[in-house]
């Protein structure tokens, strides 16, 4: 697909127009914009790690540092990095020159408008789904590595210092990334060069996304960036020190990150979660906007080479810890899926745990008769399903087509969703018995009169549809319909 599905609307133009109401296409469902919550004192901020490299560019490889990184990656997936060796002057100048770019006249910026093909350039949306809910932000995306993808002609030539400053900033942060790869490898108990080689050696990828979040007249209705985990290896973020906005999911809470002066915020992304077999976590995060101040941040994504399949490191596997992600895919395949579907929390990486195979039937396998591909409903996939159902208004309103679109899981089909939705609805509609328990072990003919008329119709239709695909399934469901 070469073009966006709808005309692009620049968020900065909307902000500067003076409108008091944001367009409906930017309004997020209430479930996606719950406020950040207070969490216990011991977990209220992401860890801060000092790597001691500012004076002589020789970073600290102490056991204490590696332990701190390991704990941060396992418990938070995020940490702030101080004394990291990147010049503060370079950081400040890079941030300032990009702020100048976003305040150029719109016609100067539109010269660099991007497309869904590779995203490089000036953009305002992620994903090509028609009628998608949009984020309140604009951005500029460019490639730094490998060098044969670094196209200076695609970089803005105004302000005049932007290209030179961006290259200098990129080179310094990439040097830091090389160190971080070694630290992450050793923190996992691997050789320090393991991740670098697994990511393609000298052909590692790096790209920069400069995000601009204009002032928003109704910040409580939208997000600057929807909840997601980053698709690549890891991210080094230069945040806006004066305007907080980044929030990190911790359990069921959202924690606001307060950037330290001169620090980078580092987060684990999906490919490291896969490579570590789930030991290191790529964590959901999002960005809030406000009505008083604009905000700018610079995210450098360090990624595997596009055509290298990524899977769990064999050294981290054992009979007790089998591979959670058994089907290796390349980063290009993974990234293209996200570019098509947009941001959907952690659905993408968790869906890699969903095993699609010709396995024998069991209570956790749904969809298709003998010889057809079946989906194993892992706990992660079930959580994705339930979130989708909630977003669509609950089991009464959610449709298989809507759930499939919302989940955006590779390999999941409409047949898988229909089958599981029927079972899910039945569990929700089963009434309580007189002793407070579910009416287990009874025939549907005995249970059905206890339902409302609407529920009886829904259950009957669900069973009729299911029986069309699998004759004789009713007897099995009578014995196991509660076992979800």
TrEMBL record:
The highest taxon in the source lineage is: Eukaryota
Where in this chain does the record put each Fe2OG dioxygenase domain? 203-304
Domain (HTH myb-type): give its ranges.
369-429
- Which residues does UniProt call coiled coil? none
Please provide the record's keywords in A-Z order: DNA-binding, Iron, Metal-binding, Nucleus, Oxidoreductase, Transcription, Transcription regulation
Q: Which InterPro entries match?
A: DIOX_N, Homeodomain-like_sf, IPNS-like_FE2OG_OXY, IPNS-like_sf, Myb_dom, Myb_dom_plants, Oxoglu/Fe-dep_dioxygenase_dom, Plant_2OG-oxidoreductases
Q: Which GO terms describe its molecular function?
A: DNA binding; metal ion binding; oxidoreductase activity
Mind telling me which residue stretches traverse the membrane in this protein? none
Identify the PANTHER family for this entry: OXOGLUTARATE/IRON-DEPENDENT DIOXYGENASE
**Which family does the record assign?**
Belongs to the iron/ascorbate-dependent oxidoreductase family.
Listed name of the protein:
Fe2OG dioxygenase domain-containing protein
Q: Which organism is it from?
A: Dioscorea zingiberensis
Its taxonomic path starts at: Eukaryota, Viridiplantae, Streptophyta, Embryophyta, Tracheophyta
